[in-house]
Design goal:
With 263 residues, the protein is of the alpha/beta class. Helix content is 38%, strand content 21%. Helix 4 (110-136) packs parallel to helix 5 (158-169). It holds the Pfam family Lon_C.
């Protein structure tokens, strides 16, 4: 036998599961990571007391200015990110909500992800060294390059590593520094041929760069639109596609000769 509910009571009974569902959804873990501007490091100098680039087998120049690689900091792969956190970050310019799969490999444990990121960093360092020595037409059998950067993983520092090696060995090719005495920051992967590849989190990296004093930011050309979306005031974007293009752009910026690429 069924009894008929009054309208207010019916609404209350029917609404209860919806409220419960919304409450559950609000605090259920979601497949996202929350990221924010991370640390930057001058590859021409020291990081946490250790020289980032050490070269033996060839004369090394004394450099001025800075070449700062940039990072983002994301919630760890085992951190529970809930709907309120996603909504809060969505409306902030100093944070970004990113699919966890775009930040971390799927199906791996935290330890495996850390190992993967370290492996990606090591590969990036090897490719960056090869790209720089190939650009300078130097034999890697005669020159030993050691790169040290603690607590950073992934391949996105490749371009800045290569530029740091070039600056220490050859500068701008005419006795000057690639930086022109400026604080130059940037991001981008690189392969042994010198091709620059896209990375993630560029708007957050530009914020980190400006925070740490950069006035110029080298960005993979494919990510110009992302970089311009929330560009900090006082930071000039210089798009690049190759190591040679990056060197040429910095030289043109310093000497005031030639055209400096822009987004």
């Amino acid at each position: 036998m069924l009894s008929r509910l009054s309208r207010p009571r019916a609404i209350a009974v029917c609404g209860a599961p919806v409220v419960a569902l919304l409450a559950t959804a609000a605090f259920a873990p979601l497949p996202f990571s929350v990221a924010q501007p991370g640390m930057t490091a001058d590859v021409l100098g020291k990081n946490k007391g250790t020289q980032v680039i050490t070269i033996s087998g060839a004369p090394v120049r004394k450099t001025s200015g800075q070449l700062r690689m940039t990072t983002i900091e994301a919630t760890s792969p085992d951190t529970r990110v809930t709907l309120p956190e996603v909504i809060d970050s969505w409306f902030r310019t100093d944070q970004a909500v990113m699919p966890r799969d775009s930040v971390y490999p799927t199906g791996d444990t935290t330890r495996e992800i850390q190992q993967y990121n370290r492996a990606q960093m090591k590969k990036s360092q090897d490719e960056a060294t090869a790209a720089a020595l190939n650009y300078l037409k130097l034999d890697d059998k005669d020159i030993d390059v050691k790169l040290e950067l603690a607590d950073v993983g992934g391949p996105s520092a490749g371009l800045l590593f290569s530029l740091g090696i070039v600056d220490k060995l050859d500068g701008d090719g005419d006795g000057g520094d690639l930086t022109g005495g400026r604080v130059v920051a940037g991001t981008g992967t690189i392969d042994a041929s010198g091709k620059v590849g896209a990375v993630g989190g560029v708007p957050l990296k530009t914020q980190a760069a400006r925070r740490d004093g950069a006035t110029v930011f080298l960005v993979p050309r494919a990510e110009c639109a992302d970089a311009k979306a929330e560009l900090p005031k006082g930071l000039r974007l210089v798009p690049v596609t190759t190591l040679k293009g990056a060197v040429d752009a910095l030289a043109a910026l310093d000497k005031g000769t030639g055209k400096v690429p822009s987004c």
